[in-house]
Amino acid sequence: MTDADTPTLTKRAEIIIAARGEFQERGFESASMDRISQNAGVSKRTVYKHFTSKENLFHAIVEELATRLGEALDVAYTSDKPIEQQLRDLAWAEAALFMSDDFMRTARMVLGEIIRDTKMSHEVQCRLDKTDVIEKFMRDAKEDGVLDIADTLAATREFIGLLKATGFWPAIYGGELVTEDAMRNTVDSAVAMMLARYRPSA
Q1: Cys bridge to 98: 14, 71, 167, 197, which one at CB 3.0-4.6 A?
Q2: Can you say whether the dihedral through the CA atoms of 151, 153, 158, 163 is positive or negative?
Q3: Which pLDDT belongs to residue 202?
Q4: 200, 147 in Cβ contact below 8 A?
Q5: Do 14 and 101 share a structural domain?
Q6: Is it the case that residue 162 has pLDDT exceeding 80?
Q7: What is the total count of domains within the chain?
Q8: Is 83 within 8 Å of 147 (Cβ atoms)?
Q9: What DSSP designation does 120 have?
Q10: How far apart are CA 200 and CA 52, in angstroms?
Q11: Residue 57, class by beta-carbon neighbours within 10 Å (0-12 exposed, 13-18 middle, 19+ buried)?
């Protein structure tokens, strides 16, 4: 099959995969569009047909990361399940990503670039910040009377912080991926702490 015969969606996906590997290995500044096209198995012209610059490629990778986060955190509060189980499900929705080598390598690369280049920092953070999804869960649980939260945004940040302290930041700073056992302990602790603080008194 020639480059021209390859389905467009497949070519685009292969280019993004190749770019992700190139950025992870060499960083954005040192990344080469020539190597990306070679590793994707397409011509450089095809790369530029889909992505007019390295910046466009980087933003496509950010969009992929944002999509994975959005799909993972598609967990809404419901009144027909115990709040403890729902908090646990919500925690694991994010925690599962922390145990994904591919996700964490990409997250490390993206965060490294936005720290280096503050001009893109705000835009990227806005795309990757899913605080509002979790806050809606907290707000709905509050309105249903199963959590007694004065400040749902603060409670949301506490919950996220409890999970990321063990599962996310150590790996971002170069440590090993969190194990399932360690993440289970973290999830159990985060849920217990949230209930201890925010479950309404009898």
Answers
A1: 167
A2: positive
A3: 67
A4: yes
A5: no
A6: yes
A7: 2
A8: yes
A9: T
A10: 54
A11: buried
Q: What angle do CA 48, 65, 27 make, to 5 degrees?
A: 60
Average predicted confidence (pLDDT) for the chain: 90
Q: Say if residue 27 is in the same domain as residue 79.
A: no
Residues 91 and 3 reside in one and the same domain? no
Residue found by looking up tokens 């289970």 in the block: 184
Full-model pTM: 0.83
Mean pLDDT on 38-60: 92
Alpha helices in the chain (DSSP H): 8-30, 33-40, 44-50, 54-72, 83-98, 101-116, 121-128, 131-143, 152-167, 169-172, 180-198
Q: Is residue 83 part of a domain?
A: yes
Asked if residue 73 and residue 48 are part of one domain, the reply reads no
Domain range spanning residue 91? 63-198
Same domain as 96, residue 11? no
Round to whole Å and give the CA distance between 95 and 159: 12
- One-letter identity of residue 90: L
